[in-house]
Amino acid sequence: MERVLLAAVFLTLFSTCAGAGAGAGAALHPDVDFIRTSCRSTRYPALCEHSLTGFAGAVRRNPRQLAQTALAVTIYRARSASTFVGHLMDGARKIRSREAGAVRDCIENVSDSVDRLRRSVAEFGRMGKPGTPSFAWHLSNVQTWVSAALTDETTCLDGFSGTNVDAAMKTAIRRKIVGLAQETSNALALVNRIAARH
Questions:
Q1: Stretch among 65-74, 83-92, 117-126, 175-184 having the lowest mean pLDDT
Q2: What region holds the Pectinesterase inhibitor domain (predicted)?
Q3: Which of 3, 80, 172, 183 is the most exposed place for a label (fewest CB within 10 A)?
Q4: Which CATH number fits domain 2-197: 1.10.10.10, 3.40.50.2300, 1.20.140.40, 1.10.260.40?
């Protein structure tokens, strides 16, 4: 069920985004404005706008759809980060055992992050109507899992702080994971915005 829901979210988002190019003028302006206003509640508003404005037609000024879209975009970025870190390790000719351990731990942390984010998206499908006990319960689960995903990403970064890792590799991994953590933080802020309203 989780895979079906996530696939449906991606299909809706990317098909809407692809079709938005021709009519992306004044017709989408209120939807874009909604995203910009919503992104002000995040820690990284410029990144939020950059990541989500292209999906304005799918979001349609719906806070719940906006948060779900932010999670879907974050999952995509998390999978990309995991692949990137894995390729870095595979491509390194001389990687020390401590470096290899830190990279393996990071890959595992990001994999856990992807899983928690996927669960969060699936949980949105079970929330039901605002004001019901099930809505509050499932929304709380979403908050918990997105927070845990952010912790996983921070743990990945922590693994490189005290190790003697190649500087270029450390910089490349840090850039990718910091970007992911910022996306996750923004998604959590948008989820929390729903909780504050209900």
A1: 83-92
A2: 30-190
A3: 3
A4: 1.20.140.40
